[in-house]
Write a structure and sequence with these properties.
The protein is of the alpha+beta class. It has two domains: 91 residues, Aminopeptidase, CATH 3.40.630.30; 158 residues, Aminopeptidase (3-Layer(aba) Sandwich), CATH 3.40.630. The protein contains seven helices and twelve strands. The chain has a twelve-stranded mixed sheet. Strand 2 and strand 3 form a beta hairpin. Helix 1 crosses helix 2. The protein is elongated, with a radius of gyration of 20 Å. Bound molecules: coenzyme A (COA). The site of coenzyme A has 21 residues, from strand 10, helix 6, strand 11 and helix 7.
Length: 269
């Protein structure tokens, strides 16, 4: 292997980019690190056909870890879609341990009538931009208080999503109790997927209302809303350790499609 050159870039307030190039300037790999809720989420894309994947990966991961350290430090979660022996070896080399698994789960749509019954009579309205952000942030941050990526969102995080081309308030369902937001199901259509796929992007029930059937009803409502927009395949991501949510999704007919793994470095642990 010839030498690997590393470029480092700060991309916005909480985002870092590391690129690895060969002597001729060809891109070998790129790492993105993004900070949310005090944790850095790192993803690395290796270019196809790269020789000596391990050396390239190791160099990029080392540079990314170094950069997060010099930009405030804190825990790092390196996410890998198809972690194999190389990823595991590189993680171990840099002191990262495999600690989290993210399930991608899917189910065909529409939902069967016996499952759909859970959402019957549920009062729903759709998200209003410019009006519902504060209430949504409050419920989201209470429900995901300990979540490394989904907790501690602010106005900036939601504004960024509202500006995305996929953002559609019609697929962002809210349920109020006594005039206060109690639960939501935010969906996202992936029209380029064949067949078109609809994601339950974020769903939560305010902790004050857990265990009353709202999570089940909101999930069903989200799936129905996706189906009404022409989608025949439902999908979501869920932390494998989130027992309540994983049980609910299996119960609603979702099956495991694939697993993403996070290798974790927690300097404080
Ligand atoms: C997951 C969540 C939406 C469930 O909402 P909920 O209103 O409490 O759930 P429900 O009362 O509708 O329960 C539906 C099913 O979930 C499962 N479930 C709920 N709480 C559970 C728990 N503590 N342990 C195990 N299973 C549980 C059960 O399968 C339950 O079905 P059952 O009542 O027939 O046993 C809620 O816990 C939540 O908002 N969590 C924080 C945010 C989150 O994790 N969102 C999902 C991310 S993918």
């Amino acid at each position: 292997m010839r030498s690997i050159d590393i470029e480092r870039r700060v991309d916005g307030e909480d985002a870092l980019v590391v690129c690895a190039r060969d002597d001729d300037g060809n891109l070998l790999a790129k790492a993105h690190a993004e900070r949310g809720n005090e944790t850095w989420s790192v993803r690395v894309d290796l270019e196809p056909g790269v020789h000596d994947r391990r050396a390239v990966l190791s160099t990029v991961v080392a540079a990314a870890l170094d950069m997060t350290e010099s930009h405030g430090g804190g825990p790092v979660h390196w996410w890998s879609d198809d972690a194999g022996a190389t990823e595991r070896a590189v993680a171990a080399e840099h002191g990262l341990r495999e600690e989290r698994q993210l399930f991608q789960m899917r189910r065909p749509l529409p939902v069967e009538p016996e499952l759909a019954a859970a959402a019957e009579g549920l009062a729903l309205r759709t998200f209003v931009v410019g009006q519902d952000e504060d209430a949504w942030l409050r419920v989201n941050n209470r429900a995901f208080a300990m979540h490394p990526e989904q907790g501690a969102w602010d106005e900036h995080d939601i504004a960024e999503r509202e500006a995305e081309p996929w953002f559609d308030p019609h697929g962002f369902l809210l349920h109020d109790i006594d005039g206060e937001l109690a639960a939501f199901c935010w969906t996202k259509v992936h029209p380029d997927h064949a067949p078109p796929m609809g994601e339950i992007f974020v769903i939560a029930v305010d902790p004050a209302f857990h265990g009353r059937g709202l999570g089940r009803a909101m999930t069903v409502a989200g799936l129905q809303s996706l189906h009404q927009r022409g989608v025949g395949l439902g999908m979501l991501y869920v932390d494998a350790a989130n027992v309540a949510a994983v049980s609910l999704y299996y119960d609603l007919g979702f099956t495991l499609h694939h697993v993403q793994r996070a290798f974790v470095l927690d300097p404080a642990a």
